[in-house]
Amino acid sequence: MATSILLSSSFSPIPRITLRPKFIFSTPKFNRTVKPINSFSHRGFLTSTQFVPSNCSTKCRRVSVLGESDTSVSDDVMVGEDSANFDLAKQKITSWVYFTGVLGVVLLVLDVVWLDNSTGFGKVFIDSVSSVSDSPEVVMFLLTLIFAIVHSGLASLRDPGEKLIGERAFRVLFAGTSLPLAVSTIVYFINHRYDGVQLWQLQSTPWLHHLLWVTNFVSFFFLYPSTFNLLEVAAVDKPKMHLWESGIMRITRHPQLVGQVMWCIAHTVWIGNSVAVAASVGLIGHHLFGAWNGDRRLKIRYGEAFDIVKSRTSVIPFAAILDGRQKLPKDYYKEFIRLPYLVITGLTLGAYFAHPLMQAASFRLHW
């Protein structure tokens, strides 16, 4: 979801060796120009015994290949992609017009097929799940579990699915299945968030609302790093599986997990009942699995490139920075002064002020 580019760096001269080097290419040359990640049409190019590509500058990085184990990369060479890199000059007006059209069609279909109680299946789905138990906590957890199984299950089938039907078609299948389930889960939470057993009541604490508001606001900078390229989300551009390394990824390799934990803590502390706890347990559990599954899938796709990124990053925020594995550039702040983060800021503030509208829309569905 970002445009891949190349990085330039220099490696130390190759030392003289007594054994004949083993090359991964049929033609034995010491220096090779490496194409950027995601530019290879052949998925199997990167394996656990091959060197690592990079794509973070306009120049090409050259690597020296001695043997299967010679894959070390300097700490100042970025192996993954530059997240949130949005070049306005490279954008096509026709692509964004197409995106607007696709978004309009998706919302229309979602309303007719799922949201509208007279024509859609959303209410039928909620009623079916609600028939399992009279407990809103159980229903809330089941809705989260169903979404998690479908969402992570389809994500796990991405590689064979894309080979079978193509990247764009699989993205349509993935989004068309996950989006209605996500909407149903969110709507049920909004409508039943104050049901269940009240476990604590802290809303009268003077400073708590401000603290939780800031926590929730910051969580959205972690939650959506994988949706920077909206054109790929809508399948206008061909969807790709990205190996991000800069920006928020320097703080944590799994920002969506961290952001979801922050969001759940803020809302659960504020609401303070059993329904909020059930929703948080389901969401955090789903994202914990997603973190493990995401690492597994990236390892399969990128091999040793992912191993290097993993060695430089951490799941726990700031852990890799504190123990010295992640070296922050002096101008690290510039990785956040980008249009996608500005858009996230605007949308997050807009969502906060639109809470009354979201609640009213959810209530009208009678789920």
TrEMBL record:
Subcellular location(s) of the protein: Membrane
InterPro entries found in the cross-reference section: NnrU_dom
Keyword Membrane: yes
Cross-referenced Pfam families: NnrU
Gene Ontology biological-process entries: carotene biosynthetic process
GO molecular function: 9,15,9'-tri-cis-zeta-carotene isomerase activity
Annotated GO CC locations: chloroplast; membrane
Transmembrane regions listed in the UniProt entry: 96-115, 138-157, 169-190, 210-231, 336-355
Lipid bilayer topology: Multi-pass membrane protein
Domain (NnrU) ranges: 139-358
UniProt keywords, alphabetically: Membrane, Transmembrane, Transmembrane helix
Protein name in the entry: NnrU domain-containing protein
UniProt source species: Tagetes erecta
Top-level taxonomy: Eukaryota, Viridiplantae, Streptophyta, Embryophyta, Tracheophyta
